[in-house]
Write a structure and sequence with these properties.
This protein has 613 residues and is an alpha+beta fold. Helix content is 23%, strand content 18%. It contains 15 helices and 20 strands. The chain has helices at residues 29-32, 66-72, 150-154, 204-207, 258-265, 273-281, 294-308, 324-335, 359-362, 426-433, 436-457, 473-492, 528-532, 535-549, 595-598; strands spanning 39-42, 45-49, 62-63, 76-78, 94-96, 100-102, 108-111, 132-133, 136-139, 145-147, 169-173, 183-187, 194-195, 232-235, 243-250, 349-351, 365-384, 409-424, 500-505, 512-519. Strands 3, 4, 15, 16, 17, 18, 19 and 20 form an eight-stranded mixed β-sheet that branches. Strand 9 and strand 10 (145-147) form a beta hairpin. Helix 5 packs across helix 7 (294-308) and helix 12 (473-492) packs across helix 14. The radius of gyration is 28 Å and the shape is globular.
Length: 613
């Protein structure tokens, strides 16, 4: 009989490579799905995306969107690095996490470094079996994350000193059930076996005296900090382990267009007059496509610098529906912007339809614009864990992406597309949103929203008296209308619902919505959605969408709901009628009520659009 092969051991003097290529993800995923601090599964291994300090962004292309950069307080944005494979030395770095692994053969559960695994493969040094990353982690609402405290869990209730025993942990699955009861932990020191049942209870870790470790393993060289938050157990692959906090902006004039685009792309802001003249001495071809002169460039640079000295926007790093950024977009969408330059020098073209609105006026609209060309920049500014980000969150929940103050950029993607902008008749809207039945119905959503905000503010320095729900009848109406239009256009326009997005303008005097496509290639700007915005076709689409919204297969339960969805932030809204994929909705499928569109069957609530329309 052939003897078994000897266990693999690292030989003295053999260097271990510092980095190896593990796999690839799309650039957009490094902003929306697998950004800094998120865990990503590669084959049978699990890794965490490291902070921006470790990214090889030397050749990453810069993205300019000055309006968004001022709000997020950075100089520019960069595409996540994607070096050519034949000459790539580095890119986006990751580190192994969770650190605890277990061998499915010998069932040993311990940190990866103790397995004596070969450098290029996560294998048990004794069994030659691929290791399995720990299924469980613990994290707090401030973004700190750590391995699950298996030793304390298996030794809970035992009369032992605080020091660890000398035993070895093992993890096995009995297979008797699909619940955590079948996941059993064992320690060779002789304590009774325990299962993972109950580990996800809200106070399970608190009862063991386990607090937040304050670890930020995605940040290079970071040390644990003092954190008073109570951690909770999570599944490694759960969506609750990472929520991105992103900001986005449409490129609207004057930025990104003509002379402003030239100044941004060639980084002329801050340059002296002599340097600008010298720069264009041999580059006259840069000015001819936009019909500009060097003197105009100099004048614009000085005007921008004077504007910058006036101070930056004192806004939180999230472009919400109430921000000045949205107000500027709304005004430009209403005003329009005819085509003047080639697409490289004019990312935003917005024009009126060829025909008059006609029947759309009777249905409550006073303005329709066709955004035939638009560009959106989406940037990752921070992330959270646990509960989904909300307006009442403490800024401490925003986990940082870097430690170095020298990094003055954020990862972002730019997408191009087209869209249809609709504005409601403001006079009719004001009359409708003051109706007692409408006000009472939205106040019910606001009360549920305030309960959620207070829960988020608990344990922070923020006073509950300062919390106010900004949700209004106008916002719920526009939001629900956007959802039913997206569902309808996904049927008529050939787009999947995930390919369409909404952008709401409901703060202050604004009363509009933009439904648009936005992709990283040209597939989103082929004219299919703009064609849906022509008044005759839009009228038919609206009538069909409202007819679908007047009933739901879950009625009467759906229409009579007192609160549905996460945090009970919806009323008459469910997956059978108006909910969309999360990527299409900017409010996480919250604040929806189709009764505000078409009213209730008994007439107690008046919809903005009568049921007969």
């Amino acid at each position: 009989m052939t003897p078994p092969p000897p266990p693999r051991r690292r030989r003295p003097g053999v260097s271990v490579p510092s980095a190896r290529k593990l796999g690839t993800v799309r650039r957009s995923q490094l902003v929306t799905t697998y950004g800094v601090g998120a865990m990503i599964a590669v084959d049978n291994e699990s890794f965490m995306v490291s902070g921006l300090d470790s990214w090889d962004a030397g050749e990453a292309r810069e993205i300019f969107e000055r309006r968004l950069a001022r709000i997020l307080k950075v100089e520019s944005f960069r595409l996540p690095p994607s070096p050519a494979p034949e000459r790539a030395k580095d890119g986006v770095r990751v580190r192994r996490f969770p650190e605890y692994q277990h061998c499915p053969t010998c069932a040993v559960l311990q940190p990866f470094s103790k397995f004596n695994s070969p450098a290029v493969r996560a294998r048990c040094g004794d069994c030659e079996e691929d290791l399995v990353p720990s299924r469980f982690v613990i994290a707090c609402d401030y973004g700190h994350i750590d391995d699950f405290p298996y030793w304390k869990w298996v030794h809970r209730g035992q009369d032992r000193p605080h020091e660890r025993c000398a035993g070895t942990l093992s993890l096995r699955s009995t297979g008797s059930t699909a619940s955590l009861r079948s996941v059993v932990l064992t320690c060779s020191c002789g304590v009774p076996d325990v299962s993972m049942e109950g580990a996800f209870r809200a106070k399970a870790l608190k009862d063991l005296g386990i607090g937040c470790s304050g670890r930020s393993p995605w940040l290079k060289g970071s040390t644990p900090v003092s954190c008073g938050q109570l951690p909770r157990a999570m599944q490694r692959g759960s969506s609750t382990t990472w929520h991105p906090i992103t900001g986005s902006a449409l490129s609207i004039p004057p930025w990104g267009e003509g002379l402003h685009a030239l100044v941004e792309k060639h980084r002329l802001i801050g340059a002296s007059e002599d340097n600008i003249r010298f720069y264009f001495r041999g580059r006259q071809g840069l000015l001819s496509p936009i019909g500009a002169t060097v003197e105009q460039v100099i004048d614009l640079v000085r005007a921008i610098e004077e504007q910058d000295t006036d101070g930056t926007d004192a806004e939180v790093p999230v472009a919400t529906m109430h921000s000045s950024l949205r107000k500027e977009e709304y005004e430009r969408l209403v005003q329009g912007n005819p085509e003047k330059f080639a697409s490289d020098w004019q990312p935003f073209v917005c024009e009126r339809p060829e025909h008059e609105l006609g029947a759309l006026h009777e249905r409550g609209f006073d303005h329709v614009m066709l955004a035939k060309r638009l560009r959106e920049v989406r940037a990752l500014s921070a992330f959270t864990r646990g509960a989904v980000p909300a307006e009442g969150d403490s800024p401490e929940r925003h986990a940082p992406l870097k430690t170095s103050a020298d990094i003055d950029w954020l990862p972002a993607i730019e997408v191009s597309g087209e869209g249809v902008f609709l504005r409601l008749d403001t006079k009719r809207l004001r009359d409708w949103e003051s109706l007692p039945s409408v006000v009472e119905r939205v106040e019910h959503i606001c009360r549920n929203h305030l309960v959620l905000l207070r829960e988020r503010a608990a344990g922070t320095a923020r006073s509950h008296g300062d919390l106010v729900s900004a949700i209004s009848p106008r916002y719920v109406l526009l939001h629900t209308l956007a959802h039913v239009l997206i569902n309808e256009w996904s049927l008529d326009g050939g787009y999947g619902t995930a390919a369409l997005r909404e952008r709401l303008y409901a703060g202050g005097d604004m009363a509009g919505l933009l439904v648009y496509t936005a992709t990283s290639d040209s597939a989103g700007s082929l004219g299919g959605l703009v064609a849906q915005g022509e008044p005759d076709r839009l009228t038919r689409t609206l009538d069909s969408a409202l007819a679908r919204a007047s009933w739901c297969s879950n009625d009467p339960l759906c229409l009579e709901s007192e609160g549905s969805g996460a945090g009970a932030l919806n009323l008459a809204a469910c997956h059978a009628c108006v909910l969309l994929p999360e990527t299409s909705c900017e409010a996480g499928n919250g604040f929806l009520d189709r009764a505000l569109l078409v009213g209730t069957a008994d007439g107690t609530v008046s919809g903005f659009f009568p049921r007969s329309s």
